[in-house]
Amino acid sequence: MEMVSAEGKMIPALPDLFTWDEGQVRLISAHCRSCGTYFFPEFHQQHRPGCSRQGIEKVLLNKNGVLKSYTIQYYMPPLPFKASGNITPYVIGLVEFPEGIQIAGIVRECPFEELKIGLDMQVTTFVLYKNDQDQEVVTWAFRPTNPIR
Amino acid sequence: MREVAIIGIGLHPWGKFSQKTFIDLGVEAVSKALQDAQIQWKEIETICSGIYIWGGNAGHLSGQYLASVFGETGIPIVNVYNACATGASAMRMATMSIASGQVDVALAVGLDISPEGFLGAKSDNPRQDRDVLRWRMVGMPNPVYWALECRKRMEKYGTTAEDLARIKVLLSKYGAENPNSRYKKIYTMEEVLSSKMVSDPLRLYEICATSDGAAAVILCAASKARQYTSNPITVAASTLGSALYGDPTLRISAISAPAKAEAPLLSESYSASQQAYKQAGIGPEDIDVLELPDNSSWHYLQYLETCGFCKEGEAEIMLKEGQTQIGGRLPVCPSGGFASFGEAIGAQATWQVAEVVMQLRGLCGSRQVANAKVGMAQTYGLMGNSGTTILKR
Fold first, then answer.
1. In this structure, are residues B82 and B88 in contact, taking their beta carbons and an 8 Å threshold?
2. Which chain A residues touch B147 with a CB distance below 8 Å?
3. From the DSSP assignment, how many helices (H) and strands (E) are in chain B?
4. A-to-B residue pairs, Cβ atoms closer than 8 angstroms
5. B 224-263: CB under 8 A from A
6. Which of B200, B232, B264 represents a domain boundary (last residue)?
7. Which residue segment(s) compose the domain that B44 sits in?
8. In degrees rounded to 5, what are phi and psi of residue B174?
9. Residue A3 pLDDT > 70, yes or no?
10. Mind telling me how many Å the CA of A149 is from chain B's nearest CA?
11. Which of B22, B67, B225, B338 satisfies CB 3.0 to 4.6 Å to B5 for a cystine?
12. What would the pLDDT profile of B203-258 be if each residue is shown by its tens digit?
């Protein structure tokens, strides 16, 4: 699953979680038409009890959401988290999408003092590190929809 | 179903013991419990042992390893892992073994030697283990989950940094007087509020450490308990709960949660405690002393609400009015809590039970809750599992 970005070759740290095929980064979810639940990742199902589990469709979530909680992390997590050097302090946010699901991710391009529950966010990518083939290994991330400064 | 009583408890003190094995810790706890119950090893008819997840095959067969030390007798041994509710699961199995009439005497034991630092992932397949995703894609140690919930609470109910710090200050006073605690230092508000920020808004002293420890409980048919002790403690309820669909908690290891709440926060703990009240035939208002899982200061506040001790958003009032102190309406964690002990996943639930037993026996000295008759031990639970034990004297 190799993709080419404007900046060069990027590959996701793990597959099947997000895409940027349409020029915009979108998280890959699945929607159960029987019970209405959205899953993330799409392969971890969490149906309503009694659901027939019929009619699960893969969907790309809206590119925009709203920040529902956040924390600033001051310690580097242990392996298997891998980044090019110490990225602390970094922000982790919980973003709610219009489909009715909240998803956690690293928040970029937002000064700490601007963090606020209710902030409009959009999905982006974050380069974790460069691999042996000089590819950028990326994860999904969030940034304010309206750039701050 | 027969009534079940606790006739003995034993602890290996909490701390860091890099020179010891999980077996060493377990053996000390079980030895003390046997002595406390005045019972011989050969009289134990079943062992329900907490799995020690960091101990390879041996850790997954902890009960057999303990039995080999004391002498193998051919009895049924079941090893169980249910994250933070591991010990509560051992308690429930031991209780049911006796209540059903299968055996008269059972041992429930939990033991743990924690790895250094943040607890990490144990597998590498993201399609079957969400742990892999949360570590590799987001970089989320457990305190991040607690901080995200804590931030929501601050926004919703106006919880302050001082509220969070006050919990550590209070619990450190109790922990200082508990011979089995890891941390004996009494903290001031200034010290807690100036401790390092770990996962904003949670500071270092507002998050529990990871510790080593072991706790054993010997249970007996109530009808035979007085053969061993003059002071048996009745198991009024021993339950497990799992999560409910629509729980809005961003649960540890998950990277998503439903936007619309259709169940309470920490629904697994809500489920376990509600079942326990029903089983015991009492309500939260009847509890005289409570051990809850204060993995962080947020947990302390949230569990008061999750288990029905106050309405949503009122835990801070209970704290500020001193209702949760010894002498207050509901003394909470007179042991010193996880704040003074640290979490030891496999051991902490049986330890909480042992602390409640000591309170109901009236043996806690300066930490004693006057005239405590009914006590409750409540666990947390990664991936939606939790246990509640209600004890009576």
1. yes
2. 71
3. 14, 12
4. 128
5. 245-246, 248, 250, 255-260
6. B232
7. 4-117+212-232
8. -75, -45
9. no
10. 23
11. B225
12. 999 999 999 999 999 999 999 999 999 999 999 999 999 999 999 999 999 999 99
Q: Are residues B57 and B144 in the same domain?
A: no
The 3-state DSSP class for residue B234 equals strand
Number of folded domains that form chain B: 2
What is the mean pLDDT of the segment spanning A90-100? 98
Q: Which two tokens stand for residue B133?
A: 């995703």
Tokens 């996943």, residue located? B345
Residue A26 β-bridge partners: A19
Quote the tokens at residue A149: 């400064």
Domain CATH number, residue B87: 3.40.47.10
**Distance between CA atoms of residues B347 and B213, nearest Å:** 6
ipTM of predicted assembly, 2 dp: 0.95
Does residue B41 sit in the same domain as residue B145? no
Cβ distance B141 to A78 less than 8 Å, yes or no, reads yes
The verdict on a CB contact (< 8 Å) between B258 and A80 is no
- Angle at CA of residue B355, ends B350 and B359, nearest 5°: 145
Of B117, B144, B257, the CB nearest to A92: B144
Do both B186 and B332 map to the same domain?
yes
Beta partners for residue A32, in sequence order: A56
Whole-model pTM?
A: 0.96
Instruction: Please give the structure tokens belonging to residue A27.
Output: 């998280």
Question: Which of A14, A43, A69 comes nearest B151 by C-beta?
Answer: A69
